[in-house]
Amino acid sequence: MAFGAFSKVNLDDLESDDDEEAEQRRAIKSARVKYETAQNAFKKRGSSLEVLKLFEEADAAMQPALKAGMANLEPPELEMVLKGRLHQGVIFATVEHIPNRWARAKRCAEEVLQFDFGNAHARWIRASALASTSDGSKALQAEAEEEMRRAIQCARTAGKNAEADQWEEGLRNGLRASAGIPGAGAPGTAAEGAAASAPPSLASPPATAGNGAARKEAPPPAASSVGAAAAASVSASSSPPAQGAQDAQIEEPPPAAGSAGGMQRGFF
Length: 268
Fold this sequence. Notes:
The structure is a single chain. By secondary structure, this protein is mostly helical. The chain is built from ten helices and no strands. It is elongated, with a radius of gyration of 21 Å. The model is unreliable at 180-229 and 236-267 (pLDDT under 50).
């Protein structure tokens, strides 16, 4: 009797594990379709509340597979989730009327940086969030400026020189302006808002010395115009770069636990 009862308990446990694995597989399959839909919408329409909702729906579909944390995901699934977080971070950083947007942008960026330490766009988002919430704190402003320098270094290491040039120009003009902080300089215009929500292929390219980069005598760029270039560059850089495109100079933390350490770095 005791042996039979013991066997029954073990069989019940195995069936429960099988059910959980099946649920996770279904969740990943459903979430993959939703993430692809959200990313395609981002490429076509840029940053908007409607696109943000699509990413949030994909995150919700993925929840059964995230019970043990992102570090336990297989590399393809982890990459899928982190791409979603990065796109959401850009949306939070560029759409002004989202509640608590900078805290949410910072959280998305830091989730990406846990696994992709040299991700230039995640560092740009985090720097922008720190600058926007510094409230006169010299310590926070210094941290934001240092983070922006890391973003520039990561961008140059990854061959994203257009973004690096734009962010360096922003640092020279003052980080709050480069981050597109509300109240820093002239407010955004309707035309700038249209550029931010336009498909990335139609959005204005990042500013360089030859195409209208911000100068000291000009008003700082508004959030929407800065965000358009960032949003476009995130979509344009979705495909994995060559394996050797790693940040050679930035000291990286140890690989995350689980299978996350096997994920290709610099995947977007």
